[in-house]
Design a protein that fits this description.
The chain is globular and about 55 Å long. Helix 3 packs across helix 7. It is mainly α. The chain has 13 helices and no strands. Helix content is 77%, strand content 0%.
Length: 270
């Protein structure tokens, strides 16, 4: 058992060293996405700031002055879940076609193919961090978020959530090579998962027959942990930390296995 564990650790370390060796390619792919998406617009990359700012302002007006939701500090409560969901859904959707979309690069160049889903995750992480940099000060100053040393958990939960999202991206990148309907299925499945995620509501508000689904939703534990640190000024509960660790371990192990098991066929199938 110890020998198997040592081999796994050695393999992971080797892949990390290889990714570091190709960091220039990774940086190029991320910057290319940022530049391509803003090309031809008047504000360019500034839209990265304007988009989340406008979104936050719209939801502030709608939920504070129209719906008058009774959840305490609802706007901060909602934004924590909504921004995390946007990052997750956009990153995994992009991963589903990241290999076919880069067919020429996959077939003509030798590089670690995990760079492609990782670049997609980092690109959407860039937008997520920009949105957080706008939302967090507003939450702390106006919308009830608490200042305490437990805010350090925000960074820890974010790192874990990014790793979980990358694990899901590895799975979907692999499936997307062999099953081209993956992205279309995600367009149906992700909205369903959205409503099964406690973004607009707290988990205890879900009816009894949905409690199990909400609890089993892996995204729920990450959102709950982030809300606990930000809005309650407390460390995430032991249950949330355990669920996060279990989902992270399960998805990273299985996602990496699937990706590395079938990557040799990506060039011929892309």
């Amino acid at each position: 058992m110890m020998r198997f564990f040592a081999l796994v650790v050695a393999s992971v370390a080797a892949r990390i060293r290889q990714l570091i060796a190709f960091r220039t390619l990774l940086k190029y792919l991320v910057l290319k996405e940022i530049k391509v998406k803003s090309r031809g617009t008047y504000l360019g990359v500034a839209w990265t700031l304007m988009n989340p700012l406008f979104t936050i302002l719209v939801y502030a007006v709608v939920f504070q002055y129209i719906f008058r939701v009774t959840i305490p500090n609802f706007l901060a409560f909602f934004l924590v879940g909504f921004l995390m969901w946007l990052f997750f859904s956009r990153a995994v959707t992009a991963a589903a076609t990241c290999i076919p979309d880069n067919e020429a690069l996959v077939k003509k160049s030798a590089f670690p193919l995990e760079v492609l889903p990782l670049a997609g995750v980092l690109y959407h992480l860039f937008h997520h961090v920009v949105a957080l940099s706008i939302a967090l000060p507003l939450m702390l100053a106006l919308w009830g978020a608490k200042v305490s040393w437990h805010l350090l958990w925000v960074g820890a939960v974010l790192v874990a959530f990014v790793a979980f999202t990358l694990a899901v991206a590895l799975w979907l990148a692999t499936i997307g090579v062999f099953f081209r309907d993956t992205r279309d299925i995600l367009e149906v499945a992700l909205p369903m998962l959205f409503w099964a995620t406690p973004i607009f509501y707290s988990p205890d508000m879900a009816p009894d027959f949905l409690q199990l689904i909400v609890s089993a939703n892996p995204v729920s534990s990450f959102i709950g942990a982030m809300r606990m640190a930000l809005l309650e000024g407390q460390a995430p509960s032991a249950i949330e930390l355990t669920l996060m660790a279990l989902w992270l371990l399960l998805m990273l192990t299985s996602g990496a296995w699937a990706f590395f098991r079938y990557r040799s066929r990506f060039a011929e199938e892309a």
